[in-house]
Amino acid sequence: MAKKIAKKKGIVVSDAGNKTLVVITQSLKTHQKYLKKYKSTKKYKVHDEENKFKKGDVVEFIECKPISKDKRHKIL
């Protein structure tokens, strides 16, 4: 059975690295006991081969095989 590839969408918060972006994603979660909704954020290091995205851009990315120690995602 083929594995479904999950696309993620986020905002670029840093483009300082060469061919590397830091992308932040936000999700809404519910506390298990108190049932209160809260925002959760997560940062991903994403491979950008052409260095074409800048800080503030909205990007879509997917998981791929490890490119470096921290990079495991690439731009669509």
Structure description:
There is one protein chain. The chain is an all-beta fold and 76 residues long. It has one domain (7-75): Beta Barrel (OB fold (Dihydrolipoamide Acetyltransferase, E2P)). It has no helices and five strands. A five-stranded mixed barrel has the order 1-2-3-5-4. The two termini are 23 Å apart.
- CATH top-level class: Mainly Beta
Q: Architecture in CATH?
A: Beta Barrel
Helix share, percent: under 10%
Helix/strand-derived class?
mainly beta
Count of discrete alpha- or pi-helical segments spanning 4 or more residues: 0
CATH evolutionary superfamily? Nucleic acid-binding proteins
Overall spatial form: globular
| Rg value | 14 Å
Largest β sheet strand count, sense and barrel closure: 5 strands, mixed, barrel
Mean model confidence by pLDDT: 94
CATH fold name, please? OB fold (Dihydrolipoamide Acetyltransferase, E2P)
SSE ordering: EEEEE
The strands making up the biggest β-sheet line up spatially as 1-2-3-5-4
Low-confidence stretches: none
Alpha-carbon distance between the termini?
Answer: 23 Å
Which strand-content bin applies to the residues? over 45%
How many discrete structural domains?
Answer: 1
Concise account of the structure shown:
The chain is mostly beta strands and 76 residues long. The chain contains no helices and five strands.
Reconstruct the topology from this structure.
Elements: E1 7-14, E2 20-30, E3 37-47, E4 58-63, E5 73-75
Parallel strand pairs: 3-5
Antiparallel strand pairs: 1-2, 1-4, 2-3, 4-5
